[in-house]
Design goal:
glycoprotein; Rhopdopsin 7-helix transmembrane proteins; membrane; mainly alpha; 81% helix; G protein-coupled receptor activity; single chain; GPCR_Rhodpsn
Length: 313
């Protein structure tokens, strides 16, 4: 039996309303996915590499002796640097990702997942290979085989080799990442000053700027002191600097603590600055997904009903 034409119009209006809500929900999910912390699992792995070695470090500094073999000592020593430089790498990735998806959302949306996988793999390979010189420049003490970590003696390369290694390490591991994060912050700030930005775009830009500035702040607090003190401490331990040794050693110890603090700060940062992470913890993401599925189903069902009605006229 044919439905009255008014009923068909009511169904059409309902269809449009459901469709609009569903599309807005889908758009919101896509937009937030573009800004979500895709590097969060990678940061967690980097932090885990540091946390796993902490019990052994605590045991060593409490007892003053290492009883777990030279290989495990070097591995724990190596993991500390892997954690630090992996954290730096993925902080840069988060800043760049925020910037790119804010400024060029359509250009990079299609390759997001594939690019994330490749960037993560390349990052881990570069970090793991790049950190190899740290344990390779250390050697097991012949007289005291129970020494580890900071007490391991350093091989003494000549001055030109030392300067070359320090320069490459500082440029690749600190200066370049810092410049990239500052550039992303600067460009995002400039975009906020554009006069023709929609209110929604302005809100997204403010969120992106907050995340990028947070990455910059963590970078400066946790990693800048270490990269200032490390070359000085290296030259002190290789006896290429004779003055101010005590002050440099104390400064380097404090800088090491700040660098390790990054593993504790990361979860707090992501909780307070990332909507996606908060939603996952509160299970709001699951509720939104169920609601979106209901809306999409209602939209499809309304279309089917309307299609059947129009064929009966």
């Amino acid at each position: 039996m044919a439905q009255p034409r008014g009923a068909g119009l009511d169904i059409q209006v309902a269809l449009n309303d459901h469709g609009q809500v569903a599309e807005e929900k889908e758009e919101k999910h896509k937009r937030e996915a573009g800004h979500s912390p895709a590097r969060l699992p990678q940061e967690a792995i980097a932090d885990l590499s540091q946390v796993l070695s902490l019990p052994l470090r605590i045991f060593y500094y409490l007892t003053g002796t290492w009883e777990f073999g030279g290989g495990l000592c070097m591995l724990c020593f190596y993991l500390k640097y892997v954690n630090m430089y992996a954290s730096i790498y993925f902080l840069v990735c988060i800043s760049v990702r925020r910037y790119l998806f804010l400024m060029h959302p359509f250009k990079f949306s299609d390759c997001r997942r594939v690019c994330d996988v490749y960037i993560s793999i390349v990052g881990w390979v570069v970090v793991c290979v790049g950190c190899l010189p740290f344990p390779l420049l250390r050697m097991q003490h012949q007289d005291d085989k129970n020494a580890c970590f900071v007490d391991l003696p350093i091989k003494k390369p000549d001055l030109p080799t030392s300067i070359t290694l320090m320069t490459i390490g500082e440029l690749v591991g600190f200066v370049t990442p810092l410049l990239i994060i500052l550039y992303c912050s600067w460009k995002t700030i400039l975009s906020l000053k554009e006069k023709h930005s929609a209110s929604r775009d302005l809100g997204e830009k403010k969120k992106a700027l907050k995340m990028i500035l947070t990455c910059a702040l963590v970078f400066l607090i946790c990693f800048a002191p270490y990269h200032i003190s490390f070359p000085l401490d290296f030259f002190v331990k290789t006896r290429q600097i004779q003055e101010g040794c005590v002050q440099i050693s104390v400064f380097h110890a404090v800088a090491l603590c700040l660098a390790s603090l990054n593993s504790c700060v990361d979860p707090i940062i992501y909780y307070f600055t990332t909507d996606e992470f908060r939603r996952r913890l509160s299970r709001q993401d699951l509720q939104d997904s169920i609601q979106l599925q209901h809306l999409s189903y209602g939209r499809k069902h309304s279309r089917d009903v309307l299609g059947e009605d129009t064929t009966e006229y």
